[in-house]
Amino acid sequence: YEGVNTIKEMGRSIHEIPRQE
Amino acid sequence: DSCIQFTRHASDVLLNLNRLRSRDILTDVTILVSRQQFRAHKTVLMACSGLFYTIFTDSLKCSLNAISLDPKVDPEGFAILLEFMYTSRLTLKESLIMAIMNTAIYLQMDHVVDTCHRFIKSSDP
Predict the structure, then answer these.
(1) In which region does residue B110 sit, left (phi positive, over 0), alpha (psi from -120 to 50) or beta (all else)?
(2) How many CB pairs under 8 A join A and B?
(3) Residue A11 and residue B119: Cβ atoms within 8 Å?
(4) For chain A, counts of helices (H) and of strands (E)
(5) Is A18 at the interface with chain B, CB within 8 A?
(6) What is the pLDDT of residues B22-76, one digit of tens each?
(7) Is A16 on the interface with B (CB under 8 A)?
(8) Which of A9, A19, A20 to mutate to test the interface with B (most CBs of B within 10 A)?
(9) Over the stretch B66-116, which tens digit does the pLDDT of each residue have?
């Protein structure tokens, strides 16, 4: 990923799977 | 008593999962997008996408080993989101940002959608 402007996203990236339905 | 936290463990695990994907080891589903095919692990897809979570927790669908996505889904957008799932890196090419965002909406990846929205707004002149 050299040469690409990388933006760090600190927030949540994906959904959270529930402990149980 | 002590506890040792290996701070890079999560990224090391993800790197190994991506290695398994690229060697087609224990991949258990083929995702069909238009005429392109993508091999992947159901568990990784479910962990990252609300749509795949719903599909693979459905007792009638969880044993499927091939899933065709809606023809409106852009294969390049899907490929970039699949790469994100396995690397945490989302490649945003100017020409593809809308395809990526629309595919993320379809895959129910809300946090990626929000981030794309913010990226588009911040890069608007």
Answers:
(1) alpha
(2) 30
(3) no
(4) 0, 0
(5) no
(6) 999 999 999 999 999 999 999 999 999 999 999 999 999 999 999 999 999 999 9
(7) no
(8) A9
(9) 999 999 999 999 999 999 999 999 999 989 999 999 999 999 999 999 999
Beta strand pairing call for B36-40 and B29-33 = antiparallel
Residue corresponding to tokens 């294969």: B75
| Secondary structure string (H, E, C) spanning B19-81 | HHHHCCCCCCEEEEECCEEEEECHHHHHHHCHHHHHHHCCCCCCCCCEEECCCCCCHHHHHHH
Amino acid of residue B49: S
| A16 min Cα distance to partner chain B (Å) | 8
> In whole angstroms, what is the distance from residue B64 CA to residue B28 CA?
9
CB contact under 8 A, B111 and A12: yes
Distances in Å between the Cα of B75 and the Cα atoms of B26, B53, B69, B80 are 23, 20, 10, 9
Rounded to two decimals, the ipTM of the complex is 0.88
Q: Which residues of chain A lie closer than 8 angstroms to B14, CB-CB?
A: none
